[in-house]
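seq/struct pair 1
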Amino acid sequence: MGKKILVQRRGRGGSQFRSPSWIREGPVRYLAMGEAELNGIVRGIIKELMHIPGLNAPVARIVLEDGREFLNYAAEGMYVGQLIEIGAMAKPMPGNILPLGKVPEGSMVYNIEKRPNDGGKFVRSGGTYAIVLAHKDGGGSHQKGETPVPRNAPPGQKVGIIAPRCTGKRCPQIIPRGKRVWASGYPKKTRLKNKRTGAMPSE
């Protein structure tokens, strides 16, 4: 006799598969950062450490000095009454919240935002953490001064700048479109005009 698979049982919607959202205290996420957090520090205090059904990590209730309140996953070593700092000028201490660019390399972090003010999307499960390895100035798609490698190079040699689209003085990215000279020696506009009229290009 057949047996219902887990996907079928979950789709039926039994009590064991329902999220207990009606008994949760609220969303576990960062507050949107304003000018005070972006340019300075906002301090808060941990009022309560609690367990919320459906979550596998303890949650801290944090009340800020301006009266705002939010829930965040508790870091290891957090305790009730602990003072924390939020903002770009906060110290890189356990429990403080600050931008990744201000966190020293080698530090362990959690609850990382994907986009600014999205509340945190990554490394949110209990016991998980990420390590800040390096800080980059963005970019990465521009050439680094290395020797280009052809696209048909063998596997062991096919590393680095692979098959750049165009190099040299005739590169379309460098020469404006109206001033490009094609293989015939004439600009594209002149070639199209001669093709329509059937006339030979003048010397």
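seq/struct pair 2
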Amino acid sequence: MGIVLRKPQDLFALKFGDVVTKRNLYELIQYSKIEGSAYWSDAVHKIGNTPQQGINWVGELPDLKAVIIKTRSGAYAEDGWSDEHKLLYRYSFKARKGKISYKETANRVLLSQPQFQYPIFLFAEKKDAWCLEGRFSVAESMDKYVVLNRQNPVLGLIDRIVEPDELQYPEGTRKYVQHLMVERSKSVVKALKSHNKQICTICELDFFDKYGVRYIEAHHIKPVSEYQESYVVAVADLELLCPNCHRAVHIYMKTTHLEYHDIKKQLKNRCQG
């Protein structure tokens, strides 16, 4: 029979491989928003849905609690695992009459995930039930789909996603354009990492030599919030930093309003002092 979900909060107790019936999940989604029903919890845990019923969300932006995704083999051409280890999953944006709007709630809850860090519960169809594949985050956004990565993967296999404080943009259309630009710059980040030794350009830390795992972060020399819609991010716009130096740079940017190269000079002097 599997797990029985009685309230939206029960989703957070599910573990990888847990199975719930389609009827149970359907009723939870439909009746969690009806006050007085057996599935009602409170206003902040209402589950929203789309006509396609493929994606749902618990709560409302910006205070979303979670996203629920139900996948069926062959439902959408872009959907499916990107790797044999099932760490990465491609999930299509929802479209109306073939046209994708990034402002539509079903798509906004995906694009906003890196900023607010709520979990994405990914379910796969299993006959008359849904099997939980695990909790996921948005790792990359393309024109037609997002790439989801499994949370808590093996250390070192998945690159760091953009820090939440780098994604605080004004409301409106510009927010979505900038967000997509940041995500598309992942290819540039990968190119930078693949063609350069992963050593911090400020403190010169070699993460692998010190900790035995490969890790480095890419910093936008020019703040992303200052990019124009037509700007194309290039390798020269980024520098590789260790986590500590990267965080220190952002603190300096907020508190001193200095340009990156001035901050870099100050921090290098401190590291060498």
